[in-house]
């Protein structure tokens, strides 16, 4: 393992110190070292909080910023933040109008968010949630409640954060974020495994010359292991998983997000996007906006995810709203 580390057990805390120093115009520390908040949160708005395990940068703290999230709870690598951290994130985000907690569907996060909400209620703080479940490969469509949240969370934060910034009530923010994730589907392809610094070796295997379709960000099994294919073939596999599931059809207008998993060169992500665009446009689906880069990663795993969200007038307005964070900047 060749990494830039001091003590592998302290990598999250040391990362947070560096992150806050670099992005002090956007974020600020709190009394809880595992909670980061927006440097200046406008008064009188609904707070937007999130959180999750580390190793997926820029998620989650990278989406704290203008017209996005207001605070995030930070867990160990691939481990949920504690209930106390989620509670402190709620308090940091709260501006007197309630807090929308927008997070991904993982058992640890579900448990700790529920505990935090109970604690918040005792303190008079109203918190409502939306749980992202956009990963098509993680469960059948008739068991969508079991699906994981992956890169579609970025679009959920974009819509929910924009609705809060526009003055929406807590129920309106929750409705917008829920609509965003309900209209979103994702799938990933992994090319290499990743290594947790404190472990020192990969905790799952992708053999050289192969790829795993539908793999999760923590190495959760996908739907197929097959020989490594060209970018065009990978795009075809991804599009053929995502589009029929919603289903996206001719005449739809969509947002497309292609995210690297951490170690794939951005150059190759653009190669993949070019193939995806040809397939989606060829089906008569209009791409209103596209994002390509490292938006939701898994340490140094090689591979990529494809996320597609169907737009209506409301979602288009929310997606198009300017925003400013480490993870996404948009005029």
Automatic annotation (TrEMBL):
<keyword id="KW-0808">Transferase</keyword>
<dbReference type="GO" id="GO:0019563">
    <property type="term" value="P:glycerol catabolic process"/>
</dbReference>
<dbReference type="Pfam" id="PF02733">
    <property type="entry name" value="Dak1"/>
</dbReference>
<keyword id="KW-0418">Kinase</keyword>
<dbReference type="GO" id="GO:0005829">
    <property type="term" value="C:cytosol"/>
</dbReference>
<feature type="domain" description="DhaK">
    <location>
        <begin position="7"/>
        <end position="328"/>
    </location>
</feature>
<dbReference type="InterPro" id="IPR050861">
    <property type="entry name" value="Dihydroxyacetone_Kinase"/>
</dbReference>
<dbReference type="InterPro" id="IPR004006">
    <property type="entry name" value="DhaK_dom"/>
</dbReference>
<dbReference type="GO" id="GO:0004371">
    <property type="term" value="F:glycerone kinase activity"/>
</dbReference>
<protein>
    <submittedName>
        <fullName>PTS-dependent dihydroxyacetone kinase, dihydroxyacetone-bindingsubunit DhaK</fullName>
        <ecNumber>2.7.-.-</ecNumber>
    </submittedName>
</protein>
């Amino acid at each position: 393992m060749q990494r830039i580390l001091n003590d592998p057990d302290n990598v999250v805390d040391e990362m947070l110190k560096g992150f806050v120093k670099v992005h002090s115009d956007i974020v600020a520390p709190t009394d809880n070292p595992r909670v980061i908040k927006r440097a200046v949160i406008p008064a009188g708005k609904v707070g937007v909080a999130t959180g999750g395990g580390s190793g997926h940068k820029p998620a989650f703290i990278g989406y704290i910023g203008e017209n996005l999230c207001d605070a995030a709870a930070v867990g160990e690598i691939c481990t949920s933040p504690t209930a106390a951290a989620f509670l402190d994130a709620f308090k940091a985000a709260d501006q007197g109008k309630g807090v929308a907690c927008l997070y991904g569907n993982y058992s640890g996060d579900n448990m700790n968010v529920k505990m935090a909400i109970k604690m918040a209620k005792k303190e008079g703080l109203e918190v409502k949630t939306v749980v992202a479940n956009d990963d098509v490969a993680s469960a059948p469509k008739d068991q969508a409640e079991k699906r994981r949240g992956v890169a579609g969370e970025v679009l959920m934060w974009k819509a929910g954060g924009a609705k809060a910034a526009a003055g929406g009530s807590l129920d309106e923010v929750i409705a917008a974020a829920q609509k965003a994730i309900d209209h979103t589907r994702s799938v990933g392809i992994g090319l290499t495994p990743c290594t947790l610094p404190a472990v020192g070796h990969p905790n799952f295997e992708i053999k050289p010359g192969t790829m795993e379709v539908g793999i999760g960000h923590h190495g959760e099994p996908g739907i197929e292991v097959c020989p490594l294919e060209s970018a065009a073939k990978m795009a075809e596999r991804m599009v053929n998983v995502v589009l029929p599931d919603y289903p996206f059809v001719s005449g739809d207008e969509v947002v497309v997000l292609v995210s690297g998993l951490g170690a794939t060169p951005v150059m190759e992500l653009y190669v993949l996007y070019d193939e995806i665009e040809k397939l989606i446009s060829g089906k008569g689906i209009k791409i209103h906006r596209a994002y390509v880069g490292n938006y939701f990663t898994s340490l140094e795993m090689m591979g990529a995810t494809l996320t597609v969200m169907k737009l209506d007038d409301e979602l288009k307005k929310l997606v198009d709203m300017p925003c400013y964070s480490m993870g996404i900047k948009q005029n």
